[in-house]
Amino acid sequence: MKSVIIVVSDLHVGSHTGLMPADGFMLDNGAVLNPSKAQKMLITFWQHFWDEFVPAATRGCREKMVVINGDAMDGNHHDAVDLIPNIKDQRRAAFQMLEPIRKKYDRFVMLRGTEVHGGKSEQDTEELAEKLKAVVDPDTGNYSWYQYWVECQGVLFQFAHHIGTTSSAAYETSAPMRELVSGLVESAQWGQRMPDVFVRSHRHRYIPVRIPSAGNKDISLFITPAWQLRTPHVERIDRMRLPHIGGVIFICEDGICREKRMIYEMPKPVINQM
């Protein structure tokens, strides 16, 4: 019987370009913040992903696990003004977004992401993960993980948020290949089992990289898409490339992993006429 891992990342709840509750959200001061037109589009994608794509893609699968692979909240960072500054508000909004999913899936894992978003030592992520009663690290008692290793139907996964970025589409596979090579070297050096599938996030751009291995199998690395639109920072460093919005599903059976992904098409730019 097949088992499945559903992965989303980089929700950035609290950002004006990230996810937020569909019906708006009451801030600490009693004011109600409603989603923008762009956020309504994200919410529509989010609802389709969980209500339609995931059920269809995982039909007939026995065990199901959800992984939130970092940066669930946006945090209070870089003197940014395009966000909800109160971290308590961000945590409550993120909880409101994730609690319905948590209730549907017994196995729910939260990864730590970037400190500027999750707080120093990811303390804000940890508080959110504890409130959601995510899978606990037995060594530390923490509810969130820097790395999460799991074997699913004979396929070994390693989840972590961070990976190198690039401003050039021509080099998008460079950091994933370096990560794979590093994994090969460390595994061989210390005699540990090499992950079959590495999962990373952080870039807001989906990309899969595979290299062949013994037994006619692949060693793979997947960088997951995100749930945040372009920010003022991105507008400064890259004028054309768009984020990839969506999620990834891994279906495992008898040592074989298949991947299904959903990436939502972004609206075309408005062309003004003279």
Structure report:
The chain is α/β, with parallel strands linked by helices and 274 residues long. It has one domain (3-264): Purple Acid Phosphatase, chain A, domain 2 (4-Layer Sandwich), CATH 3.60.21. Helix content is 27%, strand content 26%. The protein has helices at 37-57, 87-104, 115-118, 123-131, 174-190, 232-237; strands at residues 3-8, 25-26, 32-33, 63-68, 107-111, 144-145, 147-152, 155-160, 197-200, 207-213, 217-223, 245-253, 256-264. The strands form three sheets. Strands 6-5-4-1-12-13 form a six-stranded mixed beta sheet. A five-stranded mixed beta sheet has the order 7-8-9-11-10, with helices on one face. Helix 2 (87-104) packs across helix 4 (123-131). 38% of the residues are buried.
Distance between the termini: 60 Å
Question: What would you give as the CATH superfamily?
Answer: Metallo-dependent phosphatases
Secondary-structure element string: EEEHEHEHHEEEHEEEHEE
Q: What is the class in the CATH system?
A: Alpha Beta
DSSP helix count? 6
What about the largest sheet? 6 strands, mixed
Strand residues, percent: 25-35%
Number of domains: 1
| Radius of gyration, in angstroms, nearest whole number | 19 Å
Oligomer: single chain
What tags apply to this protein structure?
alpha/beta, single chain, 26% strand, 6 helices, 274 residues, globular, Purple Acid Phosphatase, chain A, domain 2, six-stranded mixed beta sheet, five-stranded mixed beta sheet
Helix and strand layout, with pairings?
Elements (H helix, E strand, L loop, with lengths): L2 E6 L16 E2 L5 E2 L3 H21 L5 E6 L18 H18 L2 E5 L3 H4 L4 H9 L12 E2 L1 E6 L2 E6 L13 H17 L6 E4 L6 E7 L3 E7 L8 H6 L7 E9 L2 E9 L10
Parallel strand pairs: 1-4, 4-5, 5-6, 8-9, 9-11
Antiparallel strand pairs: 1-12, 2-3, 7-8, 10-11, 12-13
Helix pairs in contact: 2-4
